[in-house]
Design goal:
The chain is mainly alpha-helical. The chain has 7 helices and no strands. The radius of gyration is 19 Å and the shape is elongated.
């Protein structure tokens, strides 16, 4: 793929945004890990850092938008590129929301469920790695379209794994010998965790549509 000056500037911003989103999500994972280990002060600081990184990623996304609409790339590609970046950014938003839930609502986890929640968090938020690879593979134009689509497919498979974990953990929550109100609170928490992989799947689907259009 040939890039001219404006396109190169956008590409640099996309790479910067991709790194920021990944860092946001990995910091969110550290937040969840610290919270489940009872390190509330550390979790609070990490949550604030997650918010800061997510805000920085938004600023880069606005720069991308402005560059696109001042003439970078062909008109028929601009919306697709921005929508793809926006859907990727939504994954960071979901991770930030997840942290906010933990630190604002302070869910109380039974000891026997902590490791399961931690595993769900690692699987759901860990989905960022194949998603980032998929998007950069396509945007940088350094690999065949089918390779980018294969990365996107991997995101879908990982999201299905998270769905299975969510199903199993939901069952364990509701058979646990705790108050029903506490069960509902833990399920809401699990929903926030799983939402990260759901948003990643949405971004992968968006990538799939964009790559299909590019093949026409």
């Amino acid at each position: 793929m040939v890039f001219f000056k404006k396109e190169k500037e956008v590409l640099e911003l996309i790479l910067k945004h991709a790194d920021a989103v990944e860092k946001c999500i990995l910091t969110a994972m550290e937040t969840i890990d610290a919270y489940l280990k009872g390190e509330k002060d550390k979790a609070k600081k990490l949550s604030q850092e997650t918010d800061r990184i997510e805000s920085a990623a938004d600023l880069v996304r606005y720069e991308i938008r402005d560059k696109l609409y001042t003439g970078a790339f062909l008109p028929r590609l601009r919306d697709d590129i921005y929508n793809l970046i926006e859907s990727y950014d939504e994954v960071a938003n979901a991770a930030e929301s997840c942290c906010d839930f933990f630190l604002n609502q302070r869910p109380d986890f039974p000891d026997e469920l902590k490791s399961l929640f931690l595993e769900a968090g690692k699987q759901s938020l860990g989905i960022i790695k194949p998603l980032k690879e998929a998007i950069l593979c396509f945007v940088k134009g350094e690999c065949p379209v089918e390779v980018a689509r294969q990365h996107a497919k991997e995101v879908g498979l990982k999201e299905s794994d998270v769905d299975r974990l969510e199903w199993d953990l939901t069952k364990k929550i509701f058979i646990a010998p705790i108050e029903f109100s506490r069960k509902i609170h833990l399920k809401l928490c699990l929903d926030r965790v799983a939402a990260v992989s759901d948003k990643a799947k949405d971004a992968a689907d968006m990538l799939d549509r964009v790559t299909l259009k590019s093949m026409v």
